[in-house]
Amino acid sequence: MKSKWTATPYFIWMAIFIIVPLGMVVYYAFSDDGKFSLQAFLDITIYAPVFFKSLWLALIATVISLVISYPLAYMMSRANAVTQKTMVMLIMLPMWMNFLLRIYALVTLLQENGLVEKFFSLFGIEVSIINTSTAVVIGMVYNFIPYMLMPIYTVMTKIDNNLIEAAADLGSNTFNVFKKVVIPLSLPGVVSGITMVFVPAASTFLVAQYLDGSNKLIGDFIEKEFLRDYSTGSALSLVLMVVMFIFIGLTNRFGNDDMEGMVI
Amino acid sequence: MTRRSHKIYTALILLFLYIPIFILIFYSFNDGKTTVFKGFTLKWYVELFKDTVIMESLLNSFIVAITSAISATILGTMAAIGIFSMKKKTGDMVLQVSNLPIINPEIVTGVSLMLMFVFFSGLLGFELGMGTVILAHISFSVPYVVLNVLPKLRQMNRNIYEAALDLGCSPAVAFRKVVIPEIMPGVVSGFLMAFTFSLDDFIITYFTRGSKFQTLPIEIYTMLRRRLSPKINALSTLMFLIVLIALILVNLKDYRQAKRGAK
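ok -> structure tokens follow
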């Protein structure tokens, strides 16, 4: 089949809708009233603490998602076909609801005198989760955990049961079966999962605002800056983008960078 | 680990995912605006359907989703075929650019498109609105179509296409009779992904919609800012039910097959 030309319309499309827009972010970040300037980058240094906080909370959320998802993905991948189908459906179902509604649902649950507080007070424990960083991390995990679970599960379904049995027959205990067989073979899924949770979590917009009114993250400030001034907003976006690319580049060194694996 | 502990673990995670949603559903039937339950009512559902702004936003969402998903599917399928015929190195380079909207933080894609649209709207004299939202949605959907179609092309047996040519098909007919049926599952799943992502998108729409155009997620955002009416709960409940029914219908056939396979 010789039909390279069919990609031409998309080339033009990518130039207009991917390259030019990103070029404009770079342009605005480095200019001030049409002249070259680094002023915007000086202006955004005040956001350094917010930036690191966003990365830190996203990292915690990613680790929690991984720890929770990994055993479940393994159990799912070893279950029978009907159970697997049902589980995939149950996990995808909440994802088809708009994230604003899901976060709103979580706020209702965690709010003052909400169900969670009442539940803990039954045992005489006073908790207050809403308007803390814990609430933001719970929100991130709640929102993005399917993105961790699905790639790991997909990769694990491809692990042959015979390999696991062979390792056990040859004297490996459960720990060693995981260490020598399951974990190495599931690594590409873990790598996709980590990027698919970390990147959106670190750049969330509104999630933090809803769960902790006083606590905005970098995504929220990008929006706020754009309402005021394109240059500082662009500089913030550019820094966020570069940091995310570095993160993706680093994690991909531990697995493959095959994007086709990222399609659920 | 025992079977029982597996079940408990799975149940706990599902509880975590579903309790908030069930609470939303519960309060959609609450006769009262606070979280204190005052009795059963369906009035929020009635008010929801009376709300012309919500209904109009819903219609807009569907128009945007259908238009952008069809365009993205055509553009993406053609692109995938083109990329497939290229040398591996060139094709991989094209994919790197194409995948930018997937790996980039959504908010960066949103603001970058906004900058472009605002710049050109001044130059060419158009306003941000439904048109720019559709263009933005096509942009973030095409890469998903490409990623769904490309593996199908790679799995395809090239000999069948060659055989069709040898047996007298013109390239166009061979393409229609051999290639299209092979890649169809990828095209369909690409379309469905594009459609649902478009319907659900908030962030990119938020930045490219201008000041007047409303989609359903934008309207949800506005309602949440106004500090809620239980209409949102009613809306969530309906959306949850629609998705649930759709998923069950889609999976029913597979279920029967899986069950037969198990026997």
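Chain A touches chain B through 81 residues (CB under 8 Å).
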